[in-house]
């Protein structure tokens, strides 16, 4: 499977995940609106998500996938299977202990994340955290499975798995919440149950996929074998790499934690406004950045293991060109077209007109740095492939300091919107720093034509942006009927795509040639 075909497969399945996620968010916005209880759910859901990004999709994946890819390329599949068994055994026992501690310590975790919640919202957040905390165990094992499947170039199951979480939460909002309401129980608790059910489903579908490849790990319950697994050379290498990776990912998640804490002390609903902006921002970051990162990481690691520096550099160049040509117009759309997007998607039921404007402001903040947010997903694997995790960590720490200094300056003026803007500006700094480091050390040698390519992409983006800004100003999107908003939004997006890709073609950009390369 070619890199572009693999990335396209991941992107399409990720799109299915984001669409079902959007349906989920629309149901939640309509059913629950914005309140202290929605803030409580979002805080409770953010706790296992933070840990998932910190351990499962973060430090663990960054350490495990390069080691696994190198083992497969250098030592063969039999030795790699033994590594898989040892890592699975250690990981499972660590997760059992982590989940037990997390359930007990839920009040502390909620307080650390959002001490500004009122008493009722705080208690509800603690209960929902206890229901959802074991989700981190399921998702860590899902990330472990995804690392194996992606290394063997089987991308479908890992990319499609998140759809199951969204479907479980949709059923919870559609059927579970009304059922709890009839019983006199807070309806939003159904969403916590839906999250846990989705985690179990995601883990269950990994088993047949691994079994077909003969890679289903053997998890030992014997203390002697567990001790031997801890002493395995591959496990020790993963753990050694995880320490700096944990610090690096932890810095990024600490920034989100601090921002959530700040939001909990702003106007009621601030946590939820930022949450909905996060959800829409994750469309382009997942479809572009995550998809490219998933596909490139094992391939970059294999190229490094074989000493093929030319292929390593060419893959990075290809990934960065795709990042620019696809993420720049998305960033512009978030900046100039945020209100039509939010009004069309979320202005239903209990979601108020004021909520539309506040979420749109937060979304526009992300638009400022979307290119950086996506580019980091491609640039960081360039370091991980060389087993260099320390450099991205040092950069992440510096970016965290800058981000929080920006919050000090911006929050008094922009309130919740400052929280997304500071993250966006920090992402631009992060991406620029990572890029300059790869170029300075000679790992990445940009191919010719970047200046012309950048000018062509920028020109097409400006033309598309002018059209979207004009359409946005022509209508009061909140006052329109739902069907009118949907029709206008669909027509505007199609027209914007025609303008952008048409302008690229006129300017001489050959996308098919880029894809084939």
Explain this structure to me?
This protein is mainly α. It has helices at 3-32, 36-75, 77-104, 106-114, 119-132, 135-151, 156-160, 162-182, 189-204, 206-212, 223-231, 233-264, 270-305, 309-336, 338-346, 353-368, 370-384, 390-414, 416-440, 450-474, 482-507, 511-516. α2 runs parallel beside α6 and α2 (36-75) packs antiparallel against α12. The longest helix has 40 residues, at 36-75.
What is the secondary structure topology, with strand pairs?
Layout: H1 3-32, H2 36-75, H3 77-104, H4 106-114, H5 119-132, H6 135-151, H7 156-160, H8 162-182, H9 189-204, H10 206-212, H11 223-231, H12 233-264, H13 270-305, H14 309-336, H15 338-346, H16 353-368, H17 370-384, H18 390-414, H19 416-440, H20 450-474, H21 482-507, H22 511-516
Helix pairs in contact: 1-8, 1-13, 2-3, 2-5, 2-6, 2-12, 2-13, 3-6, 3-11, 4-5, 5-9, 6-9, 8-9, 12-18, 13-14, 13-16, 13-17, 13-19, 14-16, 14-17, 14-20, 15-16, 15-21, 16-19, 17-19, 18-19, 20-21
| Poorly predicted runs of 5 or more residues | none
Helix content: over 70%
Largest sheet: none
Number of helices: 22
Distance between the termini: 14 Å
- Strand portion: under 5%
Mean pLDDT: 81
Radius of gyration (CA) equals: 23 Å
What is the approximate shape? globular
Instruction: Name the structural class.
Output: mainly alpha
Q: How many beta-strand runs?
A: 0
Order of helices and strands: HHHHHHHHHHHHHHHHHHHHHH
């Amino acid at each position: 499977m070619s890199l572009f075909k693999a990335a396209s497969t991941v992107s399409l399945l990720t799109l299915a995940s984001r669409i079902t996620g959007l349906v989920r968010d629309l149901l939640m916005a309509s059913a629950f609106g914005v309140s202290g209880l929605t803030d409580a759910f979002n805080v409770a859901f953010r706790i296992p998500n933070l840990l998932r990004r910190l351990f499962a999709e973060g430090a663990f994946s960054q350490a495990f996938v390069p080691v696994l890819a190198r083992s497969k390329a250098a030592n063969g599949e039999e030795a790699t299977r033994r590594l898989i068994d040892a890592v699975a055994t250690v990981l499972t026992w660590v997760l059992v202990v982590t989940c037990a501690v997390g359930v007990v310590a839920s009040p502390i975790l909620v307080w650390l994340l959002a001490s500004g919640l009122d008493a009722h919202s705080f208690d509800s957040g603690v209960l929902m955290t206890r229901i959802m905390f074991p989700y981190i165990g399921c998702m860590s094992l899902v990330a472990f499975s995804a690392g194996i499947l992606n290394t063997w170039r089987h991308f479908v199951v890992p990319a499609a798995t998140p759809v199951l979480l969204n479907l479980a939460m949709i059923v919870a909002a559609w059927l579970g919440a009304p059922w709890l309401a009839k019983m006199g129980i807070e309806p939003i608790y159904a969403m916590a149950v839906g999250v846990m059910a989705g985690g179990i489903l995601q883990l269950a579908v990994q088993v047949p996929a691994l079994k077909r490849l003969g890679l289903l790990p053997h998890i030992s319950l014997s203390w002697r074998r567990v001790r031997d697994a801890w002493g395995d050379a591959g496990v020790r290498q993963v753990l050694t790499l995880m320490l700096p990776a944990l610090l690096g990912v932890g810095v990024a998640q600490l920034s989100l934690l601090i921002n959530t804490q700040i939001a909990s002390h702003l106007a009621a609903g601030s946590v939820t406004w930022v949450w909905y902006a996060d959800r829409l921002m994750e469309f382009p970051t997942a479809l572009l950045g995550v998809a490219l990162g998933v596909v490139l990481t094992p391939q970059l690691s294999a190229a490094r293991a074989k000493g093929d520096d030319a292929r390593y550099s060419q893959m990075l160049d290809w990934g960065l060109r795709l990042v620019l040509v696809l993420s720049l117009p998305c960033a512009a759309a978030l900046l100039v077209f945020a209100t039509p997007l939010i009004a069309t998607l979320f202005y239903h039921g209990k979601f108020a007109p004021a909520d539309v404007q506040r979420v749109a402001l937060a979304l526009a903040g992300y638009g400022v740095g979307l290119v950086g947010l996506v580019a980091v997903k491609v640039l960081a694997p360039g370091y991980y492939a060389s087993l260099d995790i320390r450099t991205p960590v040092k950069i992440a720490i510096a970016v965290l300091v800058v981000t929080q200094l920006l919050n000090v300056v911006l929050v008094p003026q922009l309130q919740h919107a400052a929280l997304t803007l500071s993250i966006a500006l920090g992402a631009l700094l992060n991406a620029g720093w990572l890029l300059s480091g790869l170029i300075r050390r000679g790992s990445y040698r940009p191919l010719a034509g970047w200046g012309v390519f950048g000018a062509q992409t920028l020109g097409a983006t400006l033309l598309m942006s002018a059209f979207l800004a004009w359409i946005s100003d022509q209508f009061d999107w909140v006052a329109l009927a739902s069907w009118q908003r949907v029709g206008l939004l669909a027509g505007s997006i199609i027209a914007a795509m025609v303008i952008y890709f048409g302008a690229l073609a006129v300017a001489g950009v050959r996308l098919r040639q880029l894809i084939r390369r």
